[in-house]
Design brief:
Blueprint lengths: L3 H8 L3 H12 L3 E5 L4 H8 L14 H5 L4 E5 L6 H7 L1 E5 L32 E5 L2 E5 L6 H13 L1 E3 L4 E3 L5 E7 L10 H6 L2 E4 L7 H7 L29 H12 L5 H16 L3 E2 L4 H17 L7 H11 L5 E2 L14 H8 L4 H11 L5
Parallel strand pairs: 1-8, 1-9, 2-5, 5-8
Antiparallel strand pairs: 3-4, 6-7, 10-11
Organism: Hapsidospora chrysogenum (strain ATCC 11550 / CBS 779.69 / DSM 880 / IAM 14645 / JCM 23072 / IMI 49137)
Pfam families: AAA_lid_2
EC number: 6.6.1.1
Length: about 375
């Protein structure tokens, strides 16, 4: 299992940091949402921000916790494909001889009208590459074509610009950051939505650990509480990432060794079956969601210092995997209407029901193994 120091570090992480960590372990992508008035603070918590004033960069989930660079892509109804693609890139210095051109792309490829030849940058030049963490703010407001381009980026791990094709780095995380009053309201276009590994809704009342630490000017080593989740930091000092790439690789390897008892597998299948048959669910539950449910449960196990899946881990995984995927049916399309139910009665039953309520209802109905 994970060594004791790493295990203690993981238990000190915030919910936002845990959502990012689980996505990095699984090499998948996540959706994070919060109420409209908290989006900017959420972005600052997740992204390394350099303000217009002389303040130093804020410590962020991406940079401070995981040692990754990040970009914010601001989306709206006027966002174009070229703007979206170019916004993903950051400058990356190359050492002489370290640059390897990408292979030629067949003209039949997606967004095919692109150059097929690339030049090596001269010594000392900087090349552009996709950032490790891409925070797509308000991606749900972007045109459908832009959201499909984002899906293609996640599927192929590369993006086309007017002059080149850029491959995603080994550690790559794409995070739509959306405004929503609840986790069940946050979603992007259907196929992209189903491709996303998990969803997390952040309550502003839970606070922003890294942002608050930066605004306080850092925490002194002598005054930092040993039980606090805020790590000691000296303003302007260069600190190592709390969780390195090697730590993430180690946790990923441990997750692949996690086992599940047949009773736990049966419990998992029962959860999926009950969700598919729930009267409030429209369009069913996709196979991709079932795969992600098992994958997330296995990724959670090493974080809890066990090498097997428990019913509690499956319940926790279900709350994160299905939050953004469940669509509530319209009352007139609820299945009991085919058998003579009254529309007003069905409307009363479905009133106030969202994905959160459906998930909790199913977890209460399905009996967990002892």
């Amino acid at each position: 299992m994970a060594d004791e120091s790493l295990f203690e570090t993981i238990h000190d992480l915030s919910d936002l940091e845990l959502a990012v960590l689980l996505s990095l372990i699984a090499r998948e992508h996540c959706l994070i949402s919060t109420p409209q008035d908290g989006v900017d603070d959420l972005i600052e918590e997740l992204q390394l921000v350099q303000t217009e004033s002389s303040k130093p960069p804020f410590p962020s989930v991406a940079s401070k916790t995981f040692g990754l660079n990040s970009v914010v892509v601001h989306c709206d109804s006027s966002t174009t494909l070229d703007t979206f693609a170019s916004s993903l890139l950051v400058a990356h210095p190359q050492t002489p001889g370290s640059f390897t051109p990408l292979p030629n792309i067949r003209s039949e490829s997606y967004f095919s009208a692109r150059p097929r030849h690339y030049q090596l940058p001269s010594a000392g030049d900087s090349s552009l590459r996709i950032a490790n963490v891409v925070l797509a703010k308000d991606l749900d407001r972007a045109p459908h074509a832009v959201q499909i381009q984002a899906l293609e980026l996640l599927r192929t791990r590369r993006i086309f610009t007017r002059t080149a094709v850029h491959a995603a780095p080994k550690q790559f995380l794409f995070v739509p950051v959306l405004a929503a009053e609840s986790g069940g309201e946050a979603r992007v276009t259907r196929h992209l939505n189903d491709f996303l590994f998990l969803a997390h809704w952040h309550d502003p009342e839970d606070g922003y650990v890294n942002l608050e630490e930066a605004e306080d000017g850092g925490v002194d080593d002598e005054t930092a509480s040993t039980g606090s989740v805020v790590k000691a930091r000296v303003p302007g000092a260069v600190t190592e990432a709390l969780i390195s790439e090697n730590d993430i690789s180690h946790l990923a390897k441990l997750s692949q060794q996690v086992v599940a008892d047949v009773d736990v597998i049966r419990y998992q299948m029962n959860i999926v079956s009950f969700l598919r048959m729930h009267r409030a669910v429209a369009d069913g539950i996709s196979p991709a969601a079932t795969k992600h449910l098992e994958q997330l449960a296995r990724c959670l196990a090493p974080l809890h210092n066990v090498d097997y899946v428990t019913p509690a881990l499956l319940s926790l995984a279900a709350r994160k995997v299905y939050l953004h995927r469940i669509r509530i049916t319209a009352p007139e399309k609820e299945r009991s209407m085919q058998w003579g139910s009254k529309l007003r009665a069905v409307e009363a039953v479905l009133e106030g029901v969202g994905p959160e309520e459906v998930i909790e209802d199913v977890l209460e109905m399905v009996t967990a193994p002892l």
